[in-house]
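Hypothesis: this fold can be encoded by more than one sequence.
Test: take the structure tokens below, design a sequence, compare later.
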């Protein structure tokens, strides 16, 4: 298979963010040093951000609304830190996934129906990459706009930072303010990319694998187009068996690739699913029930929309993986293999077709920690949990205010 690489915006953006975070593979010693530095830089900023938020909760304990706001930020940081830690720990397996995708998915030698499907896949990935980056940057930008808007017209001694810090220095005065402001903005940007890049790249991989399964279905169906024209079916049976073996090898290869995806991403998926409903309910609480500046409210509005789109796109890509891997069995069964003569090749075809259909009965899927497969039903279940958590936190807030 041709390995000539192509580049589109989805892969370029994902590759850029993964390199900045320090997870992308390295081709030589210089790149390896860059990746190690980027990962150390990312971990350092996560630890710094955890320190800021934990100390803020400690000193602000008792202010329910403000603590809820800080907890939402803290959950983002912890989830992002957990994801990059898992992927960095499994970096060898992760790099093997990237190399396989580069060799078998991202090449230019497609033709006919495969090329049409590949272009359709490419459009979907572009849409997802642009949407994910837009809402990420929109949410992060308001963390910077909020303090700038609040500081407008105030004295230097009254200036505030994006995140409150408890240090025994004049933080509102030059140069402390400028230094701390820059560090916090850089931390926000790095954590935002760490939070988004892994899931964004996983959605792209899921989509490409699903379309590879669809291409395989088309190849299997196309094997039968000229059978009615064959006069010598014994000779055709031999040729068909050779072509079928290529399809079987591709099917086995795709199943192994899905198993690798499952091994690498199962824990990050589980963590995201566990935290998602709590994050969404806190953000909805900040939008609807608290008295916060309009810029802070816009921060949470963009974050809620981005998280909602993210979970829908992600579960849709996982659902497509389940559907298309199952449809391979349907495509295999609908062929005219029962009309082939009972030669040695004909018997082997029937045996291999049965095995291929049995393999497809158990679809390829990604699970959340091995507990349940992720599909479109997962998104509806998570949104239902979000409403339940929101009701609970609203009642808790009402009870605290009543006391």
């Amino acid at each position: 298979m041709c390995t000539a690489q192509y580049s589109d915006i989805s892969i370029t953006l994902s590759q850029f963010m993964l390199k900045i975070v320090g997870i992308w593979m390295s081709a030589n010693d210089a790149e390896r040093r860059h990746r190690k530095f980027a990962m150390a830089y990312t971990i350092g900023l996560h630890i710094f951000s955890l320190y800021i938020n934990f100390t803020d909760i400690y000193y602000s304990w008792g202010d329910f609304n403000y603590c809820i706001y800080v907890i939402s930020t803290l959950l983002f940081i912890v989830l992002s830190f957990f994801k990059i830690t898992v992927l960095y720990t499994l970096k060898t397996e992760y790099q093997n996934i990237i190399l396989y995708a580069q060799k078998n998915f991202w090449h230019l030698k497609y033709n006919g129906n495969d090329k049409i499907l590949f272009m359709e896949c490419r459009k979907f990935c572009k849409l997802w990459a642009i949407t994910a980056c837009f809402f990420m940057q929109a949410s992060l930008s308001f963390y910077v706009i909020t303090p700038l808007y609040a500081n407008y017209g105030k004295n230097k001694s009254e200036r505030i930072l994006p995140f409150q810090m408890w240090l025994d220095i004049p933080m509102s005065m030059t140069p402390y303010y400028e230094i701390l402001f820059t560090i916090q903005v850089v931390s926000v940007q790095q954590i935002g990319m760490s939070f988004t890049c892994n899931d964004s790249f996983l959605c792209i991989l899921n989509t490409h694998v699903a379309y590879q399964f669809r291409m395989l279905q088309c190849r299997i169906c196309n094997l039968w187009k000229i059978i009615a024209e064959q006069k010598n079916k014994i000779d055709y049976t031999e040729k068909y068996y050779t072509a079928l073996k290529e399809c079987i090898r591709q099917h086995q290869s795709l199943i192994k690739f899905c198993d690798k995806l499952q091994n690498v991403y199962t824990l990050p998926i589980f963590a995201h699913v566990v935290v998602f409903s709590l994050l969404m309910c806190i953000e909805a609480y900040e939008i609807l029930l608290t008295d916060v500046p309009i810029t802070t409210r816009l921060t949470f509005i963009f974050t809620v929309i981005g998280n909602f789109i993210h979970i829908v796109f992600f579960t849709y890509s996982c659902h497509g993986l389940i559907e298309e891997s199952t449809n391979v069995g349907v495509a295999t069964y609908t062929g005219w293999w029962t009309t082939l003569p009972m030669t040695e090749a004909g018997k082997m075809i029937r045996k291999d077709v049965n095995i291929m259909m049995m393999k497809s009965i158990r679809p390829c899927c990604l699970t959340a920690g091995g507990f349940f497969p992720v599909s479109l039903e997962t998104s509806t279940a998570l949104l239902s949990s979000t409403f339940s958590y929101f009701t609970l936190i609203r009642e808790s807030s009402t009870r605290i205010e009543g006391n």
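The chain has one domain: 9-402. The first helix runs from residue 9 to 21.
Hypothesis status: open.
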